[in-house]
Amino acid sequence: MIDGQVLVLNKSWVAVNVASVRRALTLLYQGAARAVHPTDYSLYDFDNWCELSALREEGRYLHTATMPIRVPEVILLSTFNGFFRQEVRFSRRNIFERDKNQCQYCGKTFAKPDLTLDHVVPRSKGGRDTWENLVLACMKCNVYKANRTPHQADMPLLKKPVKPQWLPRLGRRLPASEMGSWQRFVDAAYWDVELKS
Ligand SMILES: [Zn+2]
Known about the structure:
8 helices, 21% strand, 26% helix, five-stranded mixed sheet, alpha+beta, binds zinc ion, 197 residues
C-alpha cells in the first residue's frame, strides 16, 4: 500500500482529520466521501474518480491489479459535520506545543508547570492575546521582564512568535509534501481564535 496521508474535510470543508491512503480510498469506494480535485476543488465520487485516474494527470497513483487509481490529497466527507470546536479553544496547549516547552527568553526547556504564558507586549501597554503576542516564559524570566517590552527589558525573543504551520486540532504537523494542497483547505478562521484570558 502506498505511503502518505489524505486530508479529511467535513461537509463544511473544515479539516477534521488525516487518514491513510487506504482509509481514504475505502471511504471513497463506500460513498462516504468524495475526492476533491486539487486544482479546481471539484468533487468526484468513486466512479468519476476512476475515470479521472484513467486520464493520468499529474499526481500520485496507486497501481491496483486492474487499473491505476489516483491518490486523492483531500477528501470531503458526505455526512459527518463535526467541527470539534472544543479542541480549537485549547490554544494554551498549542502555544506550549509551538514553543516546545522552551522559555522564549532564556532558551532553557522546562517542565510545563514551570512555564507561563508571557505577553510580549504587556497587556497594560495594549498587548493582546494573540499568537504573535504570547510566548512561553519561565517563571524567572517572566518575573524579571515584568511589565516591560522585550526591548525595554533587554530580553530579545529567541524567535518571532507566529501562527504555527500545523493543525493543532489534528495534533500533528502537516507533512511538508502535503502542505501546499492541504493548507488551502484549512479553515482560516480557526487560526484567529483568540485565547480567553
Ligand atoms: Zn527563561
